Amino acid sequence: MPEENTKYTHTAMVLHWLMMLLIFTLIGLGWYMADLPKGEQRSALFALHKSIGLTVFLLALLRLSWRQSHPPPLLPASFERWRRHSAGVIHFAMYCCMFLQPLSGYLSSSFSGYATRYFGIPLPQWGWEDKFLNKLFCSVHEWSAIALCTLIVIHILGAISHALPGQEPVLRRMLPW
């Protein structure tokens, strides 16, 4: 089988690993900043979290469009049907969360009364100050964060399981070396 059919494209790899770094940064920032008292540090971290979150949203759009025009390499023929199905469901759910997370965060912010900026550039507010809607979208943001973290753990465990001796070398498909 030719190399281009067994590995993801370099663009797909860069998007994957860049988004992984940004999502891990968002998770860390989210946990850290949530309990900070209101003030300058908290505001700065929220602004950074929002900007990185919107960047992840844009990268997810790019990644999805890239994936549509550059399908991923096929899984090995030896993969059981349940493994193929599980991998597809996990990837689909992760993409859903990569869109739901920033959208719910942006909507929560839009109904919070605070302006949203993208690395200092003001963005339009999609809402007005409304405590109920702010809390609703904030809850969606928090629950989808838990779902995304759970999916990431499952994804990582699956990748590690394929790196074990005697397993199909699926993990190598996403490694640049």
Which descriptors would you attach to this protein?
2 strands; 4 helices; 177 residues; mainly alpha; two-stranded antiparallel ribbon; Fumarate Reductase Cytochrome B subunit
Would you write up a description of this structure?
The protein has a two-stranded antiparallel sheet with strand order 1-2. The protein is mainly α. The chain has a single domain (3-73, 81-174), classed as Transmembrane di-heme cytochromes, Chain C (Fumarate Reductase Cytochrome B subunit). The chain is elongated, with a radius of gyration of 19 Å. Helix 3 (81-110) runs antiparallel to helix 4. It has four helices and two strands. The chain has helices at 10-34, 40-69, 81-110, 131-161; strands at 117-118, 121-122.
**CATH top level label:** Mainly Alpha
Mean pLDDT: 92
What would CATH call the architecture?
Up-down Bundle
Question: What's the alpha carbon Rg, rounded to whole Å?
Answer: 19 Å
CATH level 4 superfamily: Transmembrane di-heme cytochromes, Chain C
Distance between the termini: 18 Å
Give, in order, the helices and strands: HHHEEH
**Helix/strand-derived class?**
mainly alpha
Q: Spans of 5+ residues with little confidence (pLDDT < 50)?
A: none
How would you sum up the global shape?
A: elongated
Q: Figure out the total of helices.
A: 4
List the helices and strands and how they pair.
Elements: H1 10-34, H2 40-69, H3 81-110, E1 117-118, E2 121-122, H4 131-161
Antiparallel strand pairs: 1-2
Short description:
The chain has 177 residues and is an all-alpha fold.
